[in-house]
């Protein structure tokens, strides 16, 4: 690449919009060898410390700075010419990379206390997090004192929590902190995951969630006042049974099993569908009746 083309790239980078600039930086970082990433980090740290440019620089100083920039550009030309070309990503998930994904699920208990709105409070009882390969990252039980949460025939059937079974768990604050450290900077694949994070005391909008229930929805049979169809999310159990023929929630639910099931649905069902439509958009446009044949179980 010659010096002129490098200058064009620099000019474009300075003048383009934020998203386009960040996409270019992501591609460049993907091309950077691992041992050079520390140098890149040093450049970033120095840039953060740098003060605002002096608007009153003399012509002589501005000329000197200009010569320095030209020298850097020339050096970049030589470096870029020697760099191996890496094909650009073909989808938003390839851009994120396998290491950038985790899947999370929580099983909850309903406490015997109400919030300021008069509703009973739900808190996490077990937390399961898996990576792209569906290997376990976190599998924790949260401490709850016996008698502090509701237990009846229905809850026993769903989560199996009763008596002192949760008294062997870790404090919620510790599990929350560990969960936060794992999902920070990751794309968190979930099925209705906002409520899971809230049950841990985390704010969903602080994290990058990809909820498969925003994709897999079916017509509720109702219409809006404007005449549009009202869609409702399809639960994880029904989705997994429809696509894989296995009932993962026939007995006591497992947060770890559900996290793995969510990741599998994302990888094996959502990704091919998105690839055929618009692989660079995280929004999924549902075709009329696309998932209406999925039966609820």
TrEMBL record:
Domain of life: Eukaryota
Alphabetized Pfam families for the sequence: RNase_T (PF00929)
Record GO biological process: rRNA processing
GO molecular function: exonuclease activity; nucleic acid binding
GO cellular component, one term: nucleus
All copies of domain Exonuclease, residue ranges: 100-275
Record keywords, A-Z: Exonuclease, Hydrolase, Nuclease, rRNA processing
Keyword rRNA processing: yes
Function recorded in the entry: Exoribonuclease involved in ribosome biosynthesis. Involved in the processing of ITS1, the internal transcribed spacer localized between the 18S and 5.8S rRNAs.
Name of the molecule in the record: RNA exonuclease 4
Organism: Folsomia candida (Springtail)
